[in-house]
Amino acid sequence: MYSTSYLLFQSITAVALGDALGVPFQCEKRQDLLENPIHAMIGHKENDVPAGTWSDDTSLTLASLVSLTQGYNLYDLMMRYSQWYHFGDYTPFGMTFGVGKTTGDAIRRFDSGIKPELCGGDSEMDNGNGALMRMMPLAFYILTSTNGYKYNDDVANLVHEYTSTTHRHPRSLIASGILTNVTIRLVYNPNKYAMLRAVKECLDYYRTKEEFAEDADLFSQLEDPHFLRQPSNLIESSPYVIDTLNSVFWCLMNSEQYSVAVTRAVNLGNDADTIGSITSMLASLLFAPVTFPREWLNELKGRNQIKVAVSSALLSKYF
Protein backbone atom coordinates (compact mmCIF):
# COMPACT_ATOMS: atom_id res chain seq x y z
CA MET A 1 0.00 0.00 0.00
CA TYR A 2 1.40 3.37 -1.03
CA SER A 3 1.15 6.30 1.37
CA THR A 4 -2.28 7.92 1.43
CA SER A 5 -0.64 11.36 1.07
CA TYR A 6 0.93 10.32 -2.22
CA LEU A 7 -2.25 8.64 -3.45
CA LEU A 8 -4.43 11.61 -2.48
CA PHE A 9 -2.38 14.03 -4.56
CA GLN A 10 -2.17 11.54 -7.42
CA SER A 11 -5.94 10.93 -7.33
CA ILE A 12 -6.92 14.61 -7.29
CA THR A 13 -4.57 15.29 -10.19
CA ALA A 14 -6.07 12.31 -12.03
CA VAL A 15 -9.60 13.67 -11.51
CA ALA A 16 -8.56 16.95 -13.13
CA LEU A 17 -6.72 15.30 -16.01
CA GLY A 18 -9.60 13.03 -16.99
CA ASP A 19 -12.05 15.88 -16.61
CA ALA A 20 -10.01 18.32 -18.72
CA LEU A 21 -9.34 15.72 -21.40
CA GLY A 22 -13.06 15.03 -21.76
CA VAL A 23 -14.46 18.59 -21.44
CA PRO A 24 -14.13 19.50 -25.15
CA PHE A 25 -15.89 16.31 -26.20
CA GLN A 26 -18.85 16.31 -23.84
CA CYS A 27 -21.92 15.26 -25.87
CA GLU A 28 -19.70 14.15 -28.78
CA LYS A 29 -21.03 11.20 -30.77
CA ARG A 30 -19.00 8.01 -30.39
CA GLN A 31 -18.88 7.39 -34.11
CA ASP A 32 -17.15 10.74 -34.62
CA LEU A 33 -14.61 9.85 -31.95
CA LEU A 34 -13.94 6.47 -33.53
CA GLU A 35 -12.94 8.32 -36.68
CA ASN A 36 -10.94 11.00 -34.80
CA PRO A 37 -10.03 9.63 -31.36
CA ILE A 38 -8.94 11.86 -28.46
CA HIS A 39 -5.35 11.59 -27.27
CA ALA A 40 -4.50 15.18 -26.29
CA MET A 41 -5.93 18.21 -24.49
CA ILE A 42 -7.88 20.39 -26.91
CA GLY A 43 -9.39 23.83 -26.30
CA HIS A 44 -12.25 26.00 -27.50
CA LYS A 45 -14.79 23.36 -28.46
CA GLU A 46 -17.61 22.51 -26.03
CA ASN A 47 -17.99 25.46 -23.58
CA ASP A 48 -15.25 27.37 -25.51
CA VAL A 49 -12.57 27.11 -22.80
CA PRO A 50 -8.76 26.77 -23.18
CA ALA A 51 -7.15 23.35 -23.44
CA GLY A 52 -6.61 21.77 -20.04
CA THR A 53 -9.59 23.46 -18.36
CA TRP A 54 -11.50 21.31 -15.90
CA SER A 55 -15.21 21.49 -15.14
CA ASP A 56 -17.65 20.75 -12.31
CA ASP A 57 -16.13 17.31 -11.68
CA THR A 58 -12.86 18.76 -10.41
CA SER A 59 -14.40 21.88 -8.89
CA LEU A 60 -16.78 19.86 -6.70
CA THR A 61 -13.96 17.46 -5.81
CA LEU A 62 -11.76 20.35 -4.67
CA ALA A 63 -14.61 22.03 -2.79
CA SER A 64 -15.32 18.72 -1.03
CA LEU A 65 -11.67 18.21 -0.13
CA VAL A 66 -11.31 21.72 1.26
CA SER A 67 -14.48 21.28 3.32
CA LEU A 68 -13.47 17.89 4.71
CA THR A 69 -10.09 19.36 5.64
CA GLN A 70 -12.03 21.22 8.35
CA GLY A 71 -13.94 18.08 9.37
CA TYR A 72 -17.26 16.56 8.34
CA ASN A 73 -19.79 19.42 8.19
CA LEU A 74 -22.54 19.35 5.57
CA TYR A 75 -23.38 23.02 6.02
CA ASP A 76 -19.79 23.93 5.22
CA LEU A 77 -19.81 21.49 2.31
CA MET A 78 -22.91 23.01 0.74
CA MET A 79 -21.70 26.54 1.38
CA ARG A 80 -18.60 25.77 -0.69
CA TYR A 81 -20.73 24.25 -3.45
CA SER A 82 -22.84 27.42 -3.40
CA GLN A 83 -19.71 29.59 -3.68
CA TRP A 84 -18.64 27.54 -6.67
CA TYR A 85 -22.08 27.78 -8.27
CA HIS A 86 -22.55 31.54 -7.77
CA PHE A 87 -19.02 32.96 -7.74
CA GLY A 88 -16.78 30.53 -9.61
CA ASP A 89 -14.74 29.42 -6.59
CA TYR A 90 -12.68 26.24 -7.15
CA THR A 91 -12.40 26.88 -10.89
CA PRO A 92 -9.30 27.70 -12.95
CA PHE A 93 -10.63 31.06 -14.21
CA GLY A 94 -13.36 32.05 -11.75
CA MET A 95 -16.03 30.84 -14.16
CA THR A 96 -18.58 28.12 -13.44
CA PHE A 97 -19.81 25.95 -16.30
CA GLY A 98 -21.23 22.47 -16.82
CA VAL A 99 -23.54 22.54 -13.80
CA GLY A 100 -25.78 19.46 -13.66
CA LYS A 101 -29.50 20.17 -13.23
CA THR A 102 -29.93 18.05 -10.09
CA THR A 103 -26.86 19.59 -8.47
CA GLY A 104 -27.95 23.12 -9.38
CA ASP A 105 -31.43 22.48 -7.97
CA ALA A 106 -29.90 21.14 -4.73
CA ILE A 107 -27.70 24.21 -4.28
CA ARG A 108 -30.67 26.53 -4.81
CA ARG A 109 -32.61 24.57 -2.15
CA PHE A 110 -29.71 25.05 0.24
CA ASP A 111 -29.63 28.77 -0.57
CA SER A 112 -33.33 28.94 0.36
CA GLY A 113 -32.69 27.43 3.80
CA ILE A 114 -33.29 23.70 3.32
CA LYS A 115 -31.15 21.42 5.50
CA PRO A 116 -28.12 20.12 3.55
CA GLU A 117 -29.03 16.46 3.87
CA LEU A 118 -32.48 17.19 2.39
CA CYS A 119 -31.31 19.29 -0.56
CA GLY A 120 -30.79 16.47 -3.03
CA GLY A 121 -33.34 15.42 -5.60
CA ASP A 122 -35.09 12.15 -4.74
CA SER A 123 -37.03 11.28 -7.88
CA GLU A 124 -36.05 8.60 -10.38
CA MET A 125 -35.06 11.38 -12.78
CA ASP A 126 -32.51 12.63 -10.22
CA ASN A 127 -30.04 9.81 -10.83
CA GLY A 128 -27.39 11.68 -12.76
CA ASN A 129 -23.71 11.29 -11.85
CA GLY A 130 -23.33 14.65 -10.07
CA ALA A 131 -22.69 12.99 -6.71
CA LEU A 132 -20.36 10.31 -8.10
CA MET A 133 -17.96 12.95 -9.39
CA ARG A 134 -17.24 14.23 -5.86
CA MET A 135 -16.95 10.99 -3.86
CA MET A 136 -13.17 10.58 -3.89
CA PRO A 137 -12.37 13.04 -1.04
CA LEU A 138 -14.92 11.32 1.19
CA ALA A 139 -13.31 7.95 0.45
CA PHE A 140 -9.93 9.23 1.66
CA TYR A 141 -11.58 10.88 4.67
CA ILE A 142 -13.17 7.55 5.64
CA LEU A 143 -9.94 5.69 4.93
CA THR A 144 -8.00 7.94 7.32
CA SER A 145 -10.59 7.98 10.10
CA THR A 146 -11.60 4.30 10.14
CA ASN A 147 -9.76 1.44 11.81
CA GLY A 148 -10.43 -2.03 10.42
CA TYR A 149 -12.40 -0.70 7.49
CA LYS A 150 -15.51 -2.56 6.35
CA TYR A 151 -18.47 -1.37 4.31
CA ASN A 152 -21.03 -1.41 7.13
CA ASP A 153 -23.93 0.69 8.39
CA ASP A 154 -21.67 3.43 9.77
CA VAL A 155 -19.81 3.88 6.49
CA ALA A 156 -22.96 3.56 4.39
CA ASN A 157 -24.81 6.16 6.47
CA LEU A 158 -21.95 8.61 6.04
CA VAL A 159 -21.84 8.02 2.28
CA HIS A 160 -25.61 8.37 1.99
CA GLU A 161 -25.77 11.58 4.00
CA TYR A 162 -22.95 13.13 1.98
CA THR A 163 -24.51 12.03 -1.31
CA SER A 164 -27.96 13.29 -0.27
CA THR A 165 -26.81 16.89 -0.32
CA THR A 166 -27.36 16.70 -4.10
CA HIS A 167 -28.83 13.25 -4.91
CA ARG A 168 -31.20 11.37 -2.56
CA HIS A 169 -32.69 8.59 -4.67
CA PRO A 170 -31.70 5.08 -3.43
CA ARG A 171 -30.08 4.33 -6.80
CA SER A 172 -27.67 7.25 -6.41
CA LEU A 173 -26.91 6.28 -2.82
CA ILE A 174 -25.97 2.75 -3.94
CA ALA A 175 -23.83 4.10 -6.79
CA SER A 176 -21.96 6.36 -4.37
CA GLY A 177 -21.46 3.45 -2.00
CA ILE A 178 -19.99 1.30 -4.77
CA LEU A 179 -17.59 4.00 -5.94
CA THR A 180 -16.50 4.88 -2.41
CA ASN A 181 -15.86 1.27 -1.46
CA VAL A 182 -13.96 0.52 -4.67
CA THR A 183 -11.79 3.62 -4.14
CA ILE A 184 -10.89 2.58 -0.60
CA ARG A 185 -10.27 -1.06 -1.51
CA LEU A 186 -7.98 -0.07 -4.40
CA VAL A 187 -5.88 2.02 -2.00
CA TYR A 188 -5.37 -1.12 0.10
CA ASN A 189 -4.99 -3.56 -2.77
CA PRO A 190 -4.52 -2.16 -6.31
CA ASN A 191 -5.69 -4.93 -8.62
CA LYS A 192 -8.77 -5.78 -10.69
CA TYR A 193 -9.77 -8.72 -8.54
CA ALA A 194 -9.92 -6.47 -5.46
CA MET A 195 -11.95 -3.96 -7.46
CA LEU A 196 -14.57 -6.57 -8.42
CA ARG A 197 -14.67 -7.91 -4.88
CA ALA A 198 -15.33 -4.38 -3.63
CA VAL A 199 -18.32 -4.10 -5.96
CA LYS A 200 -19.66 -7.43 -4.69
CA GLU A 201 -19.10 -6.44 -1.07
CA CYS A 202 -21.22 -3.35 -1.58
CA LEU A 203 -24.00 -5.05 -3.48
CA ASP A 204 -24.17 -7.85 -0.90
CA TYR A 205 -24.65 -5.16 1.75
CA TYR A 206 -27.44 -3.38 -0.13
CA ARG A 207 -29.27 -6.59 -0.97
CA THR A 208 -29.82 -7.13 2.76
CA LYS A 209 -31.52 -3.73 3.09
CA GLU A 210 -35.21 -3.71 2.16
CA GLU A 211 -35.14 -0.09 1.01
CA PHE A 212 -32.22 -0.75 -1.36
CA ALA A 213 -32.61 -4.36 -2.52
CA GLU A 214 -34.63 -3.64 -5.65
CA ASP A 215 -32.30 -0.91 -6.90
CA ALA A 216 -29.23 -2.97 -6.01
CA ASP A 217 -30.22 -5.52 -8.64
CA LEU A 218 -29.83 -2.82 -11.31
CA PHE A 219 -26.06 -2.90 -10.66
CA SER A 220 -25.66 -6.70 -10.80
CA GLN A 221 -24.00 -6.56 -14.23
CA LEU A 222 -20.93 -5.06 -12.54
CA GLU A 223 -20.32 -8.49 -11.01
CA ASP A 224 -20.49 -10.21 -14.40
CA PRO A 225 -17.10 -10.59 -16.14
CA HIS A 226 -18.87 -11.23 -19.45
CA PHE A 227 -20.67 -7.89 -19.25
CA LEU A 228 -17.41 -6.10 -18.53
CA ARG A 229 -15.73 -7.76 -21.54
CA GLN A 230 -18.39 -6.97 -24.14
CA PRO A 231 -17.74 -4.66 -27.12
CA SER A 232 -17.73 -0.93 -26.49
CA ASN A 233 -20.70 -0.33 -28.78
CA LEU A 234 -22.87 -2.07 -26.16
CA ILE A 235 -21.76 0.32 -23.39
CA GLU A 236 -23.91 3.42 -22.82
CA SER A 237 -21.83 6.43 -21.70
CA SER A 238 -24.62 8.69 -20.47
CA PRO A 239 -24.75 10.76 -17.23
CA TYR A 240 -27.15 8.20 -15.69
CA VAL A 241 -25.41 6.71 -12.63
CA ILE A 242 -25.72 3.12 -13.82
CA ASP A 243 -24.42 3.94 -17.30
CA THR A 244 -21.57 5.93 -15.78
CA LEU A 245 -20.41 3.09 -13.52
CA ASN A 246 -20.84 0.59 -16.36
CA SER A 247 -18.60 2.74 -18.56
CA VAL A 248 -15.98 3.35 -15.88
CA PHE A 249 -15.59 -0.30 -14.92
CA TRP A 250 -15.66 -1.41 -18.55
CA CYS A 251 -12.73 0.92 -19.29
CA LEU A 252 -10.77 -0.30 -16.28
CA MET A 253 -11.37 -3.98 -16.95
CA ASN A 254 -10.31 -3.62 -20.59
CA SER A 255 -7.08 -1.70 -19.94
CA GLU A 256 -3.67 -2.53 -18.51
CA GLN A 257 -2.27 1.01 -18.29
CA TYR A 258 -3.48 4.29 -16.83
CA SER A 259 -3.42 6.33 -20.04
CA VAL A 260 -5.16 3.56 -22.00
CA ALA A 261 -8.05 3.45 -19.52
CA VAL A 262 -8.49 7.23 -19.59
CA THR A 263 -8.42 7.57 -23.36
CA ARG A 264 -10.88 4.68 -23.64
CA ALA A 265 -13.19 6.55 -21.27
CA VAL A 266 -13.21 9.92 -23.05
CA ASN A 267 -13.51 8.24 -26.45
CA LEU A 268 -16.80 6.68 -25.38
CA GLY A 269 -18.21 10.16 -25.94
CA ASN A 270 -21.42 11.62 -24.49
CA ASP A 271 -20.57 12.41 -20.84
CA ALA A 272 -16.86 12.26 -21.61
CA ASP A 273 -15.65 14.60 -18.86
CA THR A 274 -17.28 12.84 -15.90
CA ILE A 275 -16.64 9.31 -17.16
CA GLY A 276 -13.08 10.36 -18.00
CA SER A 277 -12.61 11.95 -14.58
CA ILE A 278 -13.87 8.99 -12.53
CA THR A 279 -12.02 6.48 -14.70
CA SER A 280 -8.83 8.52 -14.39
CA MET A 281 -9.15 8.65 -10.59
CA LEU A 282 -9.68 4.91 -10.19
CA ALA A 283 -7.05 4.06 -12.82
CA SER A 284 -4.50 6.13 -10.90
CA LEU A 285 -5.12 3.82 -7.92
CA LEU A 286 -5.49 0.57 -9.86
CA PHE A 287 -2.22 1.08 -11.74
CA ALA A 288 -0.36 2.96 -8.98
CA PRO A 289 2.19 4.40 -9.12
CA VAL A 290 1.39 6.07 -12.42
CA THR A 291 3.34 8.49 -14.56
CA PHE A 292 0.91 11.00 -16.01
CA PRO A 293 1.51 11.89 -19.66
CA ARG A 294 3.72 14.98 -19.65
CA GLU A 295 1.77 16.59 -22.47
CA TRP A 296 -1.43 16.34 -20.41
CA LEU A 297 0.16 17.80 -17.30
CA ASN A 298 1.71 20.66 -19.23
CA GLU A 299 -1.72 21.72 -20.49
CA LEU A 300 -3.59 21.25 -17.20
CA LYS A 301 -4.87 24.53 -15.79
CA GLY A 302 -5.13 25.32 -12.08
CA ARG A 303 -2.37 22.96 -10.98
CA ASN A 304 -1.38 25.29 -8.14
CA GLN A 305 -4.96 25.26 -6.81
CA ILE A 306 -4.80 21.48 -6.67
CA LYS A 307 -1.44 21.52 -4.86
CA VAL A 308 -2.65 24.04 -2.28
CA ALA A 309 -5.86 22.10 -1.57
CA VAL A 310 -4.04 18.79 -1.15
CA SER A 311 -1.27 20.32 0.96
CA SER A 312 -3.84 21.85 3.32
CA ALA A 313 -5.67 18.53 3.57
CA LEU A 314 -2.48 16.65 4.41
CA LEU A 315 -1.63 19.17 7.16
CA SER A 316 -4.99 18.55 8.79
CA LYS A 317 -5.85 15.65 11.09
CA TYR A 318 -8.48 14.35 8.69
CA PHE A 319 -6.26 13.12 5.81
TrEMBL record:
An MF annotation (GO) of this entry: metal ion binding
Binding-site list for Mg(2+): S55, D56, D57, D271, D273, T274
Cofactors, names only: Mg(2+)
Keyword Ligase: no
InterPro entries: ADP-ribosylglycohydrolase (IPR050792), Ribosyl_crysJ1 (IPR005502), Ribosyl_crysJ1_sf (IPR036705)
Domain of life of the native organism: Bacteria
Gene3D superfamilies: ADP-ribosylation/Crystallin J1
Cofactor binding note of this UniProt entry: Binds 2 magnesium ions per subunit.
Keywords associated with the record: Hydrolase, Magnesium, Metal-binding
Family to which the UniProt record says this protein belongs: Belongs to the ADP-ribosylglycohydrolase family.
PANTHER family in UniProt: ADP-RIBOSYLGLYCOHYDROLASE, ADP-RIBOSYLHYDROLASE ARH3
Protein name, UniProt field: ADP-ribosylglycohydrolase
Organism in which the protein naturally occurs: Lentilactobacillus rapi
Lineage: Bacteria, Bacillati, Bacillota, Bacilli, Lactobacillales
